Amino acid sequence: MSRISNLTKVSLLLLGSTFLLGCQPASNAPSAPARTIQVSGDASLVEVPDRMQFTLSIRQEGQQLVQLKQTVDTITAALLQQLEQLNIAKQDISSYRLFTQPMYHYDNNKRELSGYLVSREMNIVLRNPDHYDSIVEFALAQGVTDVGMPRYDFSDARARYDEALAAAISVAKQKAELMASAAGAELGEVVQISEHSQAPRAVKTQAVEAFRSRAMADVSLPGTTQIEARVSVSFALR
């Protein structure tokens, strides 16, 4: 009798355990999807560039290679002296690109040496673009044969871009708050931010082709450059 009673208790315990296990929630049951909102934000700053880069090329052709190089070096030295008088730092001037090349012509299908070409290219960074016109006028008077197209940019381009980037995120947040409120929800914390722009590079502008008199100086104006930033931001909704 006692043995039957014990077996009955064991059976009841197993049945109870099975019932309790059946009442547990399924571990693989799908959870409710997170509520989020994704918006984009754009911002721009319109500023006058404060730095310029451009090139000056000196080109000489003739029969005497050494004499040609000396002429190019003389013009280069005069330019360097003028730039020094304008307080342009040496690290903002590059004048090492010297190029020499023989020139040929054909006579009765026979190639013959006709002379040499010697050229030098100077790259100049102006932190005061107001000097540009006077430098170009002086360079042309000394014998510079080509003025490269100038590029304008900012000495603190990264800081200006960061300012635009922060403004773009602020725009995105304002847009998300407006949309969430209209949908009867409340904006939560930031889930993800993606950047879709980059800091500005130097911008080309039209070069000055020639100067006839000192009265024509200071005619090259940089205008304005737009620094743009674009982001996409995801927010949680409550």
Automatic annotation (TrEMBL):
The keyword rRNA processing appears for this protein: no
UniProt KW Signal keyword: yes
Signal peptide residue numbers: 1-28
Organism encoding this protein: Pseudidiomarina maritima
Keywords of the record: Signal
InterPro entries xref list: 26kDa_periplasmic_antigen, SIMPL/DUF541
Pfam family, one: SIMPL
One of the GO BP terms on file: DNA damage response
Record-given protein name: Secreted protein
